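Field reference: sequence -> structure
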Amino acid sequence: MKAPKEELVVVLDNIRSTYNVGAIFRTADGAGVSKMYLSGITPAPPHPKISKVALGAENYVPWEKVSQTWRLLDDLKKQDYFLIALEQQAKAKNIFSLNKLKHRKLALIVGPEVKGLSSRILSRVDLILEIPMWGAKESLNVSVAFGIAIYQLKKLLLGQSFGKEKNLL
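Structure field:
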């Protein structure tokens, strides 16, 4: 019997910047994201600022505009997605401390930079992850944080390695 194919979907909750949305589309394409959900006030294609940064990736990553993130998360849960929020919060785990995923269907939820994901969203997720910060600033730009997180999750979904290299150092 074949192992089920991994699925990695992304939920953008109330991300205001069209440039960030464009950058996330481009990174999502590179990481092989199955689908993106643009929720709340998150802008959607077609939009010249999204296209400027996405460089056409918005035409390759399937996407859907939804009005209410919490309803989408409830639907994804019914479809057996494991819901992961990227958020700095007391219950958050260091994203680099994960070494295994038993789930093959993941949904990564990212939200606005200033206010973060609401408690209504966080109460529905299975896991909250954060990227450790060692500098003076307490957070990263949402599109940069997304890039780090999506590739870390993809690495775990694919079984720890992107290629055949064992140790290059």
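Note: The chain has one domain: 7-157.
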